[in-house]
Write a structure and sequence with these properties.
The structure is a single chain. With 113 residues, this protein is mostly helical. It has a single domain (1-99), classed as Orthogonal Bundle (434 Repressor (Amino-terminal Domain)). Helices cover 62% and strands 0% of the residues. The chain is built from 6 helices and no strands. The chain has helices spanning 8-19, 23-30, 34-42, 49-59, 67-80, 83-98. Helix 2 (23-30) crosses helix 4. It is elongated.
Length: 113
């Protein structure tokens, strides 16, 4: 499964449409209020992590589908293991200095042909 890099509300709307799930059905599966989903699809704020997990379970997708969940998990891992940041940066520095590799930069957005 592909993961979304869009804000929660947009990602939720897209996955609901893709899976052709009715909001009432999702509300029943998650024990969340039907009107709550309409609000989530429209607003800029984000639900708590436990709610993302509930919704993901109701949609039968991993919670990592949602960008906010992935960010939460990464932040949690890095807070517990701050040495990972240094190790990762050292690894990248070694790759770029030894192998003369460079990070690709995109000057113009890619367009579909």
């Amino acid at each position: 499964m592909m993961y979304s890099n869009k804000k929660f509300g947009t990602a939720l709307k897209e996955i609901i449409e893709k899976k052709k799930i009715k909001l009432r059905s999702l509300a029943n599966k998650t024990n969340l209020n039907y009107s709550y989903f309409s609000k989530l699809k429209k607003r800029e704020s984000y639900p708590p992590i436990t709610t993302i997990e509930l919704i993901s379970d109701g949609l039968d997708i991993p919670p990592e589908y949602f960008l906010e969940y992935r960010i939460y998990k990464i932040e949690k891992i890095l807070k517990k293991n701050p040495q990972l940041i240094d190790e990762t940066l050292n690894y990248l520095n070694n790759l770029t200095s030894i192998s003369k590799l460079k990070v690709a930069e995109r000057k113009k957005p890619f367009t579909e042909q």
